[in-house]
Amino acid sequence: MFSKMKNIDTAFRHIRGFSMLVIVGCIIICCFTLYKSFKLVAQMQSKVYILANGKALEAFASDRKDNIAVEARDHVKTFHQFFFTLDPDDKVIKSNVTKALYLCDDSAKRIYDDLRENGYYAGIISGNISQSIEIDSISVDINQYPYLFRCYAVQRIIRATSIAHRSLITEGSLRNVSRSDNNPHGFLVERWKTIENKDLKIENRK
């Protein structure tokens, strides 16, 4: 009788030990599954799929600090394209300049007012002149704030009888501001000025 009780007690201990191992194993597996699930969800949330021309393109979200230089250069490029892309149409001029002024402080507004008072925009309209700009390069120093930049570009001025190519070098600084529909990059150009603007060549139109 005593031997049977001892065997039952031993068997019970074995079953209890096995049950504990199974429970601990289940807990470990559940914790591992939850960890991997949260990690996978976080990875999926950092991905964005963009539909372009019927194709799904994958993009990854990242902190702004990883893209400051890229966004700063694109902000400077966008500002210059709006400010210097002009056609002989008063509405087009006002629309482009208005978009540019959202991206810069009053230094751009002062230049715009001076050009308007000197009849520059009226001359573009009356002379049927078109003006475009091609950005060669933009350097941005992100090691100090506000971020200093310098833009190298070529202006193309199309007149009825000629096409003029002018070098354009400008510089200024960039300050962080809130993002908006009018300013998607969240930068503001400050103390903007022209360093060089001279003729490179003039082509006669046939």
From TrEMBL:
InterPro entries: Conjug_transposon_TraK (IPR022276)
Keyword Membrane: yes
Record keywords, A-Z: Membrane, Transmembrane, Transmembrane helix
Superkingdom, taxonomy of origin: Bacteria
Transmembrane segments: 15-35
NCBIfam families, per the entry: Bac_Flav_CT_K (TIGR03781)
Protein name: Conjugative transposon TraK protein
Organism: Flavobacterium granuli
